[in-house]
Specification:
CATH architecture of the largest domain: 3-Layer(aba) Sandwich
Structural class: alpha/beta
Shape: elongated
Strand content: 5-15%
Largest sheet: 6 strands, parallel
Distance between the termini: 41 Å
CATH class of the largest domain: Alpha Beta
Radius of gyration: 17 Å
């Protein structure tokens, strides 16, 4: 796995590079601003870019803009975005055109090495990894939506895990239920949310996130 890291905090950038190299991963370049990120992507053609949301010069959304541009320049590039805070608008903006090969995590997850590496590998393989705290805040913003009220507590747990990007087997392991039970819950969730069911993990996560964003905008 070839990795480019874009983070303006030099200490975090180099610490992240050391962590990944210690795990046997190939960090081919690091960047301190969006221009350096795009140049590194063009030069090294990485498998995945790890990108900070807030970068110079304004420290607002430069990382998101650069990530979108990097994927335009290199179609199929996986991107894992890191943020110090939950920024729902940036998460949904990044995922607006589909969730395959995309992740959005809080920086605190980096310290939980196994979780972080699992998310990194999942995104690099074309999957999705959404921070549980982002999912929780999206749920909190959509409490007034009648369709969510149709879900049972267990279905809410399954939906939250789906939105994080977990597959059926991982959801089953987390909730200590069978994969068959998870599949039944998923079919029920899609029916209650008026969404067409599908077994394709990337499409189902996209559908869930689009639904949550729509509900957030209407809240």
């Amino acid at each position: 796995m070839r990795i480019v890291i874009a983070e303006d905090d030099a200490l975090l950038r180099e610490g992240l590079a050391l962590l990944l190299r210690a795990e046997g991963l190939d960090v081919v370049a690091t960047a301190g601003d969006p221009a350096e990120l795009l140049a590194a992507v063009a030069e090294h053609v990485p498998d995945i870019a790890i990108v900070d949301v807030r970068m110079p010069p304004t420290h607002t959304n430069e990382g998101i803009v650069a990530a979108v541009e990097a994927r335009r320049l290199q179609p199929g590039l996986a991107v894992l975005v890191l943020s110090a805070y939950v920024e729902e608008a940036f998460a949904t903006e990044l995922l607006a055109n589909g969730s395959a090969g995309l992740g959005y995590l809080l920086k605190e997850r980096v310290g939980r090495v196994e979780e972080f590496l699992d998310a990194l590998h999942r995104v690099a393989s074309g999957g999705t990894a959404i921070d549980p705290e982002v999912v929780a805040q999206l749920f909190a913003r959509t409490r007034s939506d009648g369709r969510l009220d149709r879900l049972s507590p267990r279905e809410r747990e399954v939906l939250a895990a789906m939105a994080e990007g977990l597959g059926n087997s991982a959801i089953a392991a987390r909730l200590f239920v069978t994969e068959g039970a998870v599949h039944k819950h998923i079919r029920s969730i899609f029916a209650k949310l008026d969404l067409a069911p599908t077994d394709m993990a990337d499409r189902r996560v996209t559908a869930v996130l689009h639904y949550l964003e729509d509900a957030r905008l209407r809240a």
